[in-house]
Structures are given as C-alpha cells and as structure tokens.
Amino acid sequence: MGKETRFTVLGAGHGGKAMAAHLALQGFPVTLWNRTLDNILVIALRGGIEVESQDEGPRGFGRLAQVTSDMKEAVQGADVLMVVVPSTAHADIAAAAAPHLRDGQIVVLNPGRTGGALEFRRVLRESDCQADVTIAETETLLYASRSDGPAQVRIFRIKEAVPLAALPATRTASVLAALASAYPQFIDGTSVLHTGLNNMGAIFHPALALLNAGRIESTSGEFQFYIDGVTPSVARVLEVLDRERVTVAAAVGIRARTAMEWLKMAYNATGTTLYEAIHNQPGYYGITAPPTLWHRYITEDVPMSLVPIAALGRRYGVAVSGIDSIIRLACVVHQTDYWRRGRTLDKLGIEQLSVDELNQLVLGGEA
To answer: Cβ contacts of residue 21 below 8 Å, gap of 6+?
Structure first.
C-alpha cells in the first residue's frame, strides 16, 4: 500500500484529530468519523483540520476526503481503520463497525491498553462478523497532542518508535508493511500480550492519582504530578504494582519491561530506585496533576488496564494484592464496580484458555 491507501480515523478527540490531519498532510485520502456530528461540524464545514507543531513537526491545513458520523460510510471506503478513542469505547466501536467490515481491511487500536485486540475480536465474533479483517493494537498513542479549537490541533511530539502487534502475530509484518509509508515509527511489538502487558500507564496513572486524592481535590491538581506526587512511599507502591505486572507477564510466558527499564528506554532516566529514576526524568517536570479524580487515569486505566492484568494474575496463579487494592480504592472513590465494567477474561474471550492455548491464539492462529 502506498499513498493510495485510504485511511479512516475513528474518533475526533485530540489524538484522532492529530492523526487525521497528519495523514492528510502526507497526501493520504482520509475520512474522519465521530459518533456525534456536532463535535466535527466545524471540521466538516472547513473541509479539514489546521495543524500547529513544535520545531520540525507537521503544520498546515490537512484537507480531509470525508467527515462523517455515519459508521457505514466511514468503514466502507477504508483500507485501514485507525481507532483513536478511549479504550472504554472499543467494544462499542467493534459492534457498530461489525456489519460493514469486509475482507482485507486492517483495524488498528491506538492504543489497545490491555486486551484491546482480544476484546475487539470477541465482539466481532459475537456480532457474527464474517469478514476476514486483521486487528492490531499499539502499545501507546503515537502523538502527544491537544485540541486548540474545533478544527485545530497542536502536535507536541510524535514518538520515534511505537510497538504494534496484530492478532495473531503472524499478521504483524503485513500490517507494518501496510502502514510503513505513513508511519515508519511503528515497530514489531511481538504479540498483543506484549503490547498489553507493557502498558506503563496502568502502573503509573491510577495509583498516583488515588494516592494523591486529597491533594488533587484540595488544589484542583495544582502541583507537579510526577515530581511532587511521587514521594518515596508512593514510589514504593508503584514498585510493588510493577513487580506484580511483570510477574503476571512471566506467568503467561512474556518477558515484560520493568518500569525502570522503560524509563531508561523512553527517556534515558536512571536511578537506584524508581523514586530516583522518576525524579531524574526532566520531561516530568512541569506536568501538573489531573484537576479532578474523574479523569481517564482512573476511569479508563482501572477497568481497561488494571482489571485485565489482575484477572490474568488470578487465572494463572499470581498474587496481585497490590493491583487489587488500587482497583478497590478506585471502586470506593468512584462508587463504581470497576470489576464489572472492566475487561475481565470472559470479555476478552479467553477465560477457558490454558497458557499454551493463549499463546497459540496470540502468536499464530486459533486456540
């Protein structure tokens, strides 16, 4: 696939707008879909999105081929569907797209959080979707961006390397090849267990927000989240959560990156403890806390990241008392049953699988 590859971006938040505009500026025909037409009306009237960037980044007017809230219209004209919505909406998107998908299309979840591709696959099957589509997910969102207005987006940074894996992994190479002309940044993420269990936001976001709950509510988030918020005690909790995540990964046959390894890889930040490494990351200085606890760091990262990691731990014999305690705190604070709302193994369609069968499913075909 080359410049004639037709992309549809599903979701018009800051990430979806950045992706749609950047693809358009590169010369690809792009359709932008959003569930509510009102949110994309100005983009439809203007015919595209204005992009501002730092330094050498993309800038200019990204003219879109189509702007729509009609899922059938959005899906039918696409070779590649880039899903850029909160992971809490992945199942809804799968159900809405299912009747319109056709053989040979590629669906990429940007990102999958934990278990995104598995959940998407289960919903397509339950919707009786017969099309042979390839589902893939990324480990993190490629863009750091924000909306500057109804038809404006600012791109702060495009990450240099983002792991991507298809389900099954035997299809990853063909997805990377299809995306290469638009996104050379995507690299082989090994499997969707790797992309899902290397989910660092699951470890950093919910615990940090909940352990700073009093401060967030009393200051409306007016403090440095990763610097003031990560005290030695908070960092010790993060270390325990991280150890549990890595142990769950090992139980399903995966060597996951530790938080320390990730900080070294992503930011070249090092230290003898997680507390030191976080405080040695210059990029964390100046990032303020969420203004409220009703924030995706809890509402999304708990059900879509921590719940599936804990569920895998329970299924395959790993003690996850630290992760459980953070999930329970979130349930209490939000008066919500995040276990019921979250990605449990039945929602991923893998509740009956042994470790071998799970690996067979993600690496090379049917379980």
So the answer is: 48, 49, 50, 51, 58, 62, 153
